[in-house]
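User: Hello! My lab partner asked me to get a predicted holo structure for this protein. The small molecule is magnesium ion, SMILES included with the sequence. Please write out the structure tokens.
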Amino acid sequence: MTTISVIKADVGSFPGHSRVHPAILEKATEMLRKAEGNLITDSFVTHCGDDLELIMTHTHGEDDPGIHKLAWDVFIECTAIAKDLKLYGAGQDLLSDAFSGNVKGMGPGVAEMVFEERASDPVLVFMADKTEPGAWNYYLYKMFADPFNTPGLVIDPAMHEGFVFEVHDVIDKRKVHFSTPEESHKLLAYIGAPSRYLIKYVYRKDGLIAASTSTQRLNLIAGRYVGKDDPVMVVRGQSGLPSVGELIEPFATPVIVAGWMRGSHHGPFMPVGLCDANCTRFDGPPRVICLGFQICNGKLIGPVDMFDDPAYDRVRSKCNEIADILRAHGPFEPHRLSLEEMEYTTLPIVEKELTDRWEPI
Ligand SMILES: [Mg+2]
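Assistant: Hello! Below are the structure tokens for the protein in complex with magnesium ion.
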């Protein structure tokens, strides 16, 4: 069995929340290279905006303490570099000082998947900046449950039965499974509220794993504003699953997500190539990259930079138009998040200072 672990954290960036420093990327690459042939089979290091992304293959399954320790050590070493260079927010996603066997709940985001390699196994790794894990909900629904996006649901007999979605409630810490197409409406009743209900896994009806996401929400872990979660996602394609083209097609439509500027604003989710995975305008807009690999005996054959394509120019242009419209709202909703979502920002501190100014009416 092959395991893919994508573990990410913001351990400091420059300038401000824009991008990961090359010295950090070099250090992470070097540390993972050293572990290849030993603890891990293969690795690839990249960044999306200010988030350091570690893509690793190995044979140890999900939640392996050795793999999580390796990622944690990389983040600690890279935090040291960030502190030396006085980068912004050095170590900001590491919410604890001591590693206790698993990075989940400690700040980093984790998406892992264990599977038996098929004759040919294309895997896409999606990585986002300036948004929250629920951002994947819309896209996973389109990929695996919408025949207008994925004609394979109609014309491939292997997909005809549909898929099972595992949905997590991050407030009440519970999970539920919904089968599509028969329970699509029930599924949508929940995942349409992406700040609370997150799709964690998608399976084919025969149990084949198709998608896995990171569901860590930093603010809920820390109980205060500590930056956005900036999620990752691993998705398999072809041979009884949506084709690679069907998996990236939903990103050709502009969608508005939460997490821009101070984690407090809605913005368009812009798909970009790696060279554009740097957040600039108003610290954004929120963006997503996708790296495509073929998995061969645990080796990562690739990557291919999937959104580095003029076919995505039009959605990028639409995202810029939406960004203008939302920015024109300034501090007003719906650019600013709803009050409930603002609970984990610095706004309550402002309100607390003004409490005494209020008089009964
Ligand atoms: Mg980030």
